Amino acid sequence: MSTITWSLRTGREGSGSYNRFSCMGRTFLPAPDLRRKFRNAAKTPPLGMQAVTDLTPYVDEVYPLYLQVYERSKLRFEKLTKEYLRRIGAERPEKARFFIWRQEGRPVAFSVCALHDNALWDEYIGMDYGVALDLHLYFLTFRDLINWCCKQGLKRYYSTALGYDPKLHLKCRLAPIDLYVRHTSPLINQVFRRVLKFLEPTRGDPVLKKFPNASEL
């Protein structure tokens, strides 16, 4: 299974967040396409991003956004709980980073991330699908996270696994991750060892082969 990585080149910033992203990420998408998405979003009330280490005060607001993404996903792993999200920040404040995007005071997106080895790992997302497509939330949140990484001096950004098509257009690269599975029955677990490679969730994803470094994995 693969996650997505993008290497950051700090020190090449423009005068504003749009210019900075355009300068550093101009090869993500054809420039007109990316600019069009940002122009369309700029016609709506502005989005503000908030970065916090403790999600407890905001969890009731943003948890429904996570559930929207979870329910729409064709492939699901564990379902996070509010208590889990609270404990991440409480127990690992030096690692946990939560990002909340608001429009006119209302949360429309959020992301659960972790800091590790000079990189930001984007683990879970939540979005209000009532506005996500019109606002191009996927690309706006990606832009804001890249800008945040640059300001913090981070060297890499790792996105979540799955949903590879938009990441391909953003000129990201694949990075391998391990997926561990163990059955509670020792007997069935012996069978799992032989067939697990055929059950790997991205095995049949045709988009993966289009990434420039797919042959390296």
Describe the protein.
α1 packs across α6. A hairpin with a 2-residue loop joins β3 and β4. Helix content is 39%, strand content 22%. The chain is globular, with a radius of gyration of 18 Å. The chain starts with a strand and ends in an 18-residue tail after the last helix. It has two domains: 172 residues, 3-Layer(aba) Sandwich (Aminopeptidase), CATH 3.40.630; 31 residues, no CATH class. Strands 2-3-4-5-6-1-7 form a seven-stranded mixed β-sheet, with helices on both faces. It has eight helices and seven strands; from the N terminus they run βααβααβββααβαβα. The relative contact order is 0.19. With 217 residues, it is of the alpha+beta class.
CATH architecture level-2 label of the largest domain: 3-Layer(aba) Sandwich
Q: Proportion of β residues? A: 15-25%
Radius of gyration, rounded?
A: 18 Å
Count of helical regions: 8
Low-confidence stretches: 9-30
Q: What's the end-to-end separation, in Å?
A: 9 Å
How do the SSEs run, as a string of H and E?
A: EHHEHHEEEHHEHEH
Total of domains? 2
CATH H level, superfamily name of the largest domain: Gcn5-related N-acetyltransferase (GNAT)
The percent of residues in helical segments reads: 25-40%
Shape: globular
Largest sheet: 7 strands, mixed
* CATH fold-level topology of the largest domain: Aminopeptidase
Number of strands: 7
Query: SS-based structural class?
Result: alpha+beta
Instruction: Name the assembly state.
Output: single chain
Indicate the CATH class of the largest domain: Alpha Beta
